[in-house]
Design a protein that fits this description.
Elements: H1 16-20, E1 30-32, H2 39-44, E2 49-52, H3 56-67, H4 69-77, H5 105-113, H6 124-137, H7 166-176, E3 181-182, H8 186-190, E4 198-201, H9 224-239, E5 243-249, H10 253-258, E6 262-269, E7 281-288
């Protein structure tokens, strides 16, 4: 069992037991088209798997973790405290692309991380290291992009942030060995699932309020049309004999129930909130085509603090 390398909004560590109780007792290849922080994948460590995400920089990070863990750790060791002075031998030591003053090391690294969305050449290893660094030093571990695809989360406040995460990176690297990691639309991943496989879908959640904006983890977003497209894909998987488990917000209950799935409401406390006292339990559903008599049942997963 490995731990996630990155903090990620909507992570499923608190729901592992609820999810595993609805997994089939056995399955062939495990597919996760919205891997995000990978809490389920890293905890499960399936014998055969394929993971995917729409965020190309997240996918690159996992590729570097899998293929070059030692180089990645060496690069992470070179980074400075986020509130230190900028590195005057690197770009953006004084101002960013918009001529805003660079106040400290964190904002310089954020500007360097945004090379790719600005059409500049980038080093995949450095980009992965910067994602790990920013993830552990930004505000609340959020990942958010603006309309131009730039990571725009401000600096966080940590007494002694550990951005190297040596043990986590090594364990995650071992878990990813031999696992294909793709960066494509979720439907392309689902097309590869065969009878007897398991697909776990954890898309960006549909907002509980009809007037709320969808949370955008990438510049492209994931809207209501995508939610409906996902449900239709789940129905096709069911027809092909593929095991499917989906987590989403409570407002999708009827959609998946009408698609013929078993749907149950569960509660989870969201860890990413600016107010630690306001991390309320949110209404979520887990939908599956796995009949109760064919399920794995309750697990004994450790749900320790992330």
């Amino acid at each position: 069992m490995a731990d996630p390398v990155l903090k990620w909004a909507g992570g499923k560590r608190q729901l592992l037991d609820e999810l595993y109780a609805r997994f089939p007792a056995s399955f062939d290849t495990y597919h996760e088209p919205f891997v995000g922080g990978g809490a389920v994948f890293f905890d499960l460590e399936p014998d055969a798997a394929r993971v995917n995400d729409a965020n190309p920089r997240l996918v690159n990070c996992y590729e570097q973790v899998r293929d070059r863990p030692d180089d990645l750790l060496d690069r992470l060791e070179t980074y400075r405290d986020p509130e230190a002075d900028p590195d005057d031998v690197r770009e953006f030591a004084e101002t960013d692309r918009d001529d805003n003053s660079i106040g400290n090391y964190y904002y310089q690294q954020r500007a360097l991380f945004n090379r790719r969305p600005n059409g500049q050449d980038f080093d995949p290893l450095e980009e992965a290291a910067l994602l790990c660094y920013l993830n552990r030093t930004c505000f609340n571990g959020l990942y958010r992009e603006n309309a131009d695809g730039e990571f725009n989360v401000p600096i966080g406040r940590y007494a002694d942030p550990d951005w190297v995460q040596r043990d986590r990176v090594r364990a995650a690297s071992r878990a990813l060995v031999g696992v294909p990691i793709s960066n494509c639309d979720f439907e392309a991943v689902l097309d590869d699932a065969d009878r007897g496989d398991l697909v776990y879908c954890d898309p960006p959640y549909e907002p509980m309020s009809p007037t709320a904006d969808f949370t955008e983890y990438s510049a492209d977003g994931f809207d209501r049309e995508d939610q409906e497209r996902l449900c239709a894909a789940v129905e096709r998987l069911d027809e092909r004999g593929v095991h499917v488990v989906v987590s989403n917000s409570g407002v999708t209950y009827d959609r998946y129930s009408e698609a013929g799935l078993f749907v149950e409401r569960v509660g989870a406390t969201r860890a990413i909130n600016s107010d630690a006292d306001n991390r309320d339990e949110v209404d979520e559903i887990i939908a599956t085509n796995v009949a109760p008599e064919n399920r794995r049942g309750a697990s004994q997963s450790s749900l320790g603090e992330f």
